[in-house]
Amino acid sequence: MLRPQGPAAESSFDLMKLSITIMIVVLLIVFSIAAYVLVRFRRKPDQREMPEQVEGSFKLEVLWTVIPLILVVVLAVPTVKAVFAAGNDHSNDKNAIKVKVTGHQYWWEFQYTDYGVTTAQDLVIPAGKDIAFELSTKDVLHSFWVPSLSGKMDTNPDGTTNRFSFSAPNEGVYRGKCAELCGPSHGFMEFKVKSVSEAEFEKWVNSMKSPAVLPEDPALAEKFKSQCLTCHAMGDMPDMSSAPNLTGIGSRESVAGILLNDDTGVDGAPVLENLKTWLHDTQGVKPGNKMPDPKKDMNLSDEEIDGIAEFLAGYTLD
Ligand SMILES: [Cu+2]
C-alpha cells in the first residue's frame, strides 16, 4: 500500500498522505496551544485566589466550528472523487481484459472469459491494460486485495457479483491476499498478479490452451487420471471449477498460493520441493483445505506421490 504500483493504488495513497498531513498539522497546532496555555497560565506559587472565570466566546466558537468544517470538506472532496473512480467498471470496454474471479476456501480461480482460459493462484495480465474484474464466491465471503495495485473488493456469498478494475503499468509480480476472514487457512489464501508485456501475455494464453499432458509411466498416468483429474482440470479439459486448474503448474509463482517457488531457495523453495511438501501434507500447509490427502484418502504410495510431484514440476509452459 505504501509503495503504490498503479493508478488505483496511487489515488488511495494520495488520500492517505493528505489526511495524515492534515492530522499532523492539527495535532501540532492543538498541542502547541495546549503547551503554551499550561505554561503561561499555570498557578504562581503565591497565588491563592480563584482565577477569573470566562464563559462563552462567540468568536472562538465560530472559529473552532468553521476550521474543522473546512478540513472535513478538504478531505471529503478528493475522497468522494477517488471512491467513485475506484468503483469504475470496464466490463463494456473493448480494450479491457475481462477476468472472472472466484474465491474458494482457500484458493483463487481466474477465468479469462474472452480467451477461454482458466487458471488459479497466478493472475497473469498485460502491463498497462485495464483489467475488468467480475467477482464472486463458491462458498463464503472473501475479499480480493492486491495492496500495491488497488483497494479491496468483496466476493459476496448471496450470489451477486461485484465489479471493479485496475491496471498495473509496470511489469512485475505483485502479492495478493484474501482480506476477509474466511476460515482456518484464510491467512494462507494468497495469490500473485504477474504483469507481463503484451506479447508475453498472448504467448501465455496460447500455451494455456495446449492439450493436457499425462505422466509418461502408464500406471502413474492412470492413477493421476482416476485420482486427481476428477477434481482438477488441465490444458484443453473442461474446468469444473472445483479445484485449481493445473495447466503449467511447473511455471507458477507458487504452489497452493502460499509455497513460493524459488530456485535460489532464498524466498521459498524449488517448485518440485513445494509440490512434494503439498502432496505429502496438504492439511499441514493449509489447515481445513478441501483437497483429500493423497496418501490417506487416495491410497497413493510415497513413490507415486513423488512421481506425480515430478511430473507436475516438469509441466511447464513455454
Ligand atoms: Cu479469506
From TrEMBL:
SUPFAM superfamilies found in the cross-reference section: Cupredoxins, Cytochrome c, Cytochrome c oxidase subunit II-like, transmembrane region
Described purpose of this protein according to its UniProt entry: Subunits I and II form the functional core of the enzyme complex. Electrons originating in cytochrome c are transferred via heme a and Cu(A) to the binuclear center formed by heme a3 and Cu(B).
Keyword flag Transcription regulation: no
Keyword Iron: yes
Class of the enzyme per the UniProt entry, highest EC level: translocase
EC number(s) on file: 7.1.1.9
Annotated protein name in UniProt: Cytochrome c oxidase subunit 2
Biological-process GO terms, alphabetical: ATP synthesis coupled electron transport
Organism of provenance: Paenibacillus jilunlii
Residue runs in coiled coils: none
